[in-house]
């Protein structure tokens, strides 16, 4: 007798005409082949104060090829360097590309410990993105092990101190050659790592946003919930337009109700008061929102740490008009963006229909109180000060 899920997977296997799933080799971390960069060519650590986001890279990278006939090839860790691809490769023409962004932190408690923050969430999301654009899926835990090996090798380049970390960029591309538009029969994962400093060098710097309804980042039935490279290039021009009017980022609105979705490439939170009660709101995951790991972590920590007699934490639709009306009534308390790079990014005002909606900040500070608390709660877990083994992978 088959158990129900065994039966399901057998049916899936039998119905997979294209690939003989049975004989496809899975991704296996222990097979990794390591080639070290020559001693004389090794990069030295960059001074903390000289770090620029995404500019410097570590000495090694990870690559793993895949093809539809054999499955995953031997993973390789090798000196950081160029890729060589035929100009007809499908990634260049039809955007078979997806990526992830996560970080590794030097523990502030135990010198030798390195901590990755919820990498299982990033790997799950990476597999979802892959599935959506017909690129191969892989065993998340095996890729985490490989990334840990890569990071250990260049551990001397991870900057130390709160706000400093190693930004990890796993990427997958379709590498089939030829101009036909079809399922890629070849793919490549590569992972590169960049030592980074705090997003805001001198503490928070609150940003001003332009509520954007003349361009749409994502839509129902689209792929806004996937980290596909194709989602990002079209967002630069609206950002330049907003910048021309003096705003740093777009607050992406959607639809006739002008619902708030995200800010730039971050999720977004608004806090309101209503008498003695307070509410924290972020957009629901309806397929138009990137399912941020930081967003999820903030929701969980706020539900855990905020007094439930005062605070309600809601994932619900929120229109720019509601924000405007409640700001006018003095009910808007604070607002911030959330994402791996900055963790939280305080918002100070929002341009909408030629007027500015002012977002309160604490007296003499560049953020609201909750923004500050959230930053501390998450930072303390990332740097090993607060123990939370379900989230902090120490290695
Ligand atoms: C990556 C990303 C986020 C934030 O996700 P995290 O997992 O928290 O880093 C939010 N919105 C968009 C559009 C993104 O690409």
From TrEMBL:
One of the record's GO molecular function terms: L-leucine-2-oxoglutarate transaminase activity
Pfam families assigned to the protein according to its UniProt record, in alphabetical order: Aminotran_4
Keywords, sorted A to Z: Amino-acid biosynthesis, Aminotransferase, Branched-chain amino acid biosynthesis, Pyridoxal phosphate, Transferase
Enzyme class: transferase
Modified residues (N6-(pyridoxal phosphate)lysine): 227
Example of a GO biological process term: L-leucine biosynthetic process
Protein name, entry field: Branched-chain-amino-acid aminotransferase
Protein family per UniProt: Belongs to the class-IV pyridoxal-phosphate-dependent aminotransferase family.
Cofactor(s) needed by this chain: pyridoxal 5'-phosphate
Pathway: Amino-acid biosynthesis; L-isoleucine biosynthesis; L-isoleucine from 2-oxobutanoate: step 4/4; Amino-acid biosynthesis; L-leucine biosynthesis; L-leucine from 3-methyl-2-oxobutanoate: step 4/4; Amino-acid biosynthesis; L-valine biosynthesis; L-valine from pyruvate: step 4/4; Amino-acid biosynthesis; L-methionine biosynthesis via salvage pathway; L-methionine from S-methyl-5-thio-alpha-D-ribose 1-phosphate: step 6/6
Catalysed transformations (reactions): L-valine + 2-oxoglutarate = 3-methyl-2-oxobutanoate + L-glutamate; L-isoleucine + 2-oxoglutarate = (S)-3-methyl-2-oxopentanoate + L-glutamate; a 2-oxocarboxylate + L-methionine = 4-methylsulfanyl-2-oxobutanoate + an L-alpha-amino acid; L-leucine + 2-oxoglutarate = 4-methyl-2-oxopentanoate + L-glutamate
Enzyme nomenclature, EC number: 2.6.1.42
PROSITE patterns: AA_TRANSFER_CLASS_4 (PS00770)
TM regions (residue ranges): none
Organismal lineage: Eukaryota, Fungi, Dikarya, Ascomycota, Saccharomycotina
CDD domains cross-referenced by the UniProt entry: BCAT_beta_family
GO cellular component: mitochondrion
Family annotation (InterPro entries): Aminotrans_IV (IPR001544), Aminotrans_IV_CS (IPR018300), Aminotransferase-like (IPR036038), B_amino_transII (IPR005786), BCAT-like_C (IPR043132), BCAT-like_N (IPR043131), BCAT_family (IPR033939)
The keyword Nucleotide-binding belongs to this UniProt entry's keyword annotation: no
